[in-house]
Structure formats: structure tokens, C-alpha cells
Design goal:
Number of strands: 5
Distance between the termini: 29 Å
Number of domains: 1
Helix content: 40-55%
Low-confidence stretches: 1-27, 40-258, 260-311
Strand order of the largest sheet: 2-1-5
Radius of gyration: 20 Å
Shape: globular
């Protein structure tokens, strides 16, 4: 795109606000970056939505080119969240008066997930959605990777069975010449997301070395989040404690009753004498008293993560 700069030429400080009042300026910078993604990956979207004439090799090259950009975007998200550590959020007596956590701002979530845009590239949606879920998990100190666990994601992906999405693609393209290319594209997307997630862990600074020993490491739970973000058509609810991560899914087309879910979760918050630190159309989460085990829940907007229709 003429006149644009690559992410490697852009300082993250240009997009990270020094004060909550400056937060909207950060959205403008991120919007420009995502606009650049749209421009550069238009051909990828065209292929994924049904073109049988586009070069598979070119698609793979474009997907590979996203790796550095996604990693830098993840680092930028980590830098933003690090400006607002959870330890600085003061507890309030009434959950209705809870402090809103800037990272869970409605506009911010909507921008990254592209919920208002029909042109947001599918591959970017997948990567950012998976990275965002994982990053919020880190943000509440529910889990962390240590030296013994930091390769668990690679081990899982080496032995994983074909995902439902891959099986759908194979059924649709059984007689298609690009059958091997589809598998290669999926493998590259998986690898790129893994790199992005590791970049988040390294850049976040939210989990300090001093508290690493006090945090329960649940590598299997991390894998659950990533697998579900990549493999199911719609993610509805993610419920997590220090010990476990569970993802609930619903059939395509089922409407999520946000009011009912929020009411149920509000009761849980009150019963634990906790307080809400964020509430958006993406979800709500709470942070209990320091003496209690961490508990968190997020309700994700129903979303198709991959379009498998060939027309």
C-alpha cells in the first residue's frame, strides 16, 4: 500500500497510551494497521471465499508474511495491558460501580474481532481471536508458561488429529487439485498463532518472575483454549479457574442469551465477594479477593472463525 510503513518500522510507543484518557488515540493507530492487513491480504480472503484459480503457493507466501505482523501486534497488546496492571485496580464495595478495565473496552474488542466489518480477513480473525483469548487469560494470572511447559503447544500440534474445519475443507475439496495446499495453509496458520502466543508470553510482563512459583501452570488448559479457537465454528462461553479451562459451544445459529448469562455470573460474583473488572459484549470477568482462588469467565460473541463455502 503506497505510503504505508511496515510494522517493523513503527514504534509501539506510538500506539500505547501513557494515560487512560489517551486510550482512544490507540484505537486509531490499530485501525490503521488492520486497514493495512485488509489491503495486503485481499487476495487471501478471495481465495478462502471460493476462488479456485488463485495460486496456492501465493496464498502460503502471504500467510507466512503475516507472522511478524501478528507477533508485533501481540506485543503491542501486551504493552497496552502492562500499562494497567491488575494490582492497580482498587476493589469497590458495589459491583455496579466496578472499574472498567481498558483492555476490555467495547470499541477495542470490536476493532480486533472485526465484528462490524465484512471485509476483515478470515485468517487475521482466527489469529487475533486466539491470541486475545490467551492474552486475557494471562492478564488475570490464571496460568503461565515455564521452562518445562513452554513447548507443550508444539507437542500437541505435532500429534493433533485433523480439526473439524480441516475435515470440512477436505470434504468440500475432495476432488480439488488444491487439497494438499489447504493442509499446508492450515499448518502455517497454526504455527503462526503459536509464535504469536509465545510472543505474548514473553512481552507481557504481567506475570513477574517473583510470582511465577505461585501460579498454577496448566499447559493442558492453554491447549484447550487454542484448539477451540481454531477448530470449532462458534465459541460461546469460556469458563476458567486456576485448575481448569472449559469451553462451551452451541450449534450454528443458536442465539446466546447474554442477559441470562450475565445475571447468573453476577450472582457468582456477589457470592464470592468479588468485583467485576470488565464488562463488554464480548464478556464479563471478575477478580476475587486476594485470599480466594482466581475465577474468571468470558462470554465470546458467537462467531464463525472460518468460511468453508466454495461458490
Amino acid at each position: 500500500m503506497a505510503g504505508s510503513r511496515s510494522l517493523s518500522e513503527v514504534s509501539l510507543s506510538e500506539y500505547v497510551p501513557s494515560h487512560p484518557d489517551a486510550y482512544p488515540l490507540d484505537l486509531v493507530g490499530c485501525q490503521k494497521m488492520i486497514a493495512q492487513y485488509r489491503e495486503e491480504l485481499h487476495a487471501t480472503r478471495y481465495f478462502l471465499h471460493g476462488s479456485r484459480g488463485y495460486s496456492g503457493a501465493d496464498v502460503i507466501r502471504m500467510v507466512r508474511s503475516l507472522n511478524d505482523e501478528i507477533m508485533q501486534l501481540s506485543a503491542m497488546l501486551a504493552s497496552i495491558v502492562a500499562r494497567y496492571p491488575l494490582s492497580s485496580v482498587q476493589q469497590v464495595s458495589d459491583p455496579e460501580d466496578a472499574i472498567q478495565f481498558p483492555f476490555l473496552n467495547d470499541k477495542w474488542v470490536g476493532l480486533l474481532l472485526g465484528r462490524d466489518s465484512d471485509t476483515q480477513e478470515i485468517v487475521i480473525q482466527c489469529a487475533i481471536q486466539a491470541a486475545m483469548v490467551f492474552h486475557v487469560v494471562l492478564g488475570i494470572k490464571a496460568m503461565a508458561l515455564n521452562e518445562e511447559e513452554n513447548d507443550i503447544l508444539y507437542r500437541i500440534y505435532r500429534r493433533q488429529d485433523p480439526s473439524p474445519i480441516a475435515r470440512q475443507w477436505r470434504a468440500i475439496t475432495k476432488m480439488h487439485a488444491k487439497y494438499p495446499v489447504i493442509d499446508q495453509v492450515q499448518a502455517i496458520i497454526n504455527k503462526r498463532i503459536l509464535h504469536a502466543l509465545h510472543g505474548i508470553v514473553q512481552a507481557s510482563g504481567i506475570v513477574s518472575d517473583a510470582c511465577m512459583a505461585d501460579i498454577v501452570v496448566n499447559g493442558q488448559g492453554i491447549v484447550v483454549v487454542i484448539e477451540k479457537a481454531m477448530e470449532i465454528d462458534r465459541i460461546l462461553t469460556l469458563e476458567m479457574t486456576m485448575e481448569d479451562v472449559t469451553v462451551f459451544v452451541a450449534p450454528l445459529g443458536e442465539v446466546l442469551d447474554l442477559e441470562r448469562m450475565e445475571c447468573a455470573f453476577r450472582q457468582e460474583v456477589l457470592s464470592k465477594e468479588s468485583f467485576v473488572i470488565g464488562s463488554t459484549d464480548m464478556g464479563i470477568c471478575c477478580l476475587p479477593n486476594a485470599n480466594e482462588a482466581s475465577s474468571w469467565q468470558i462470554i465470546l460473541k458467537p462467531k464463525v472463525v472460518l468460511d468453508t463455502t466454495f461458490t
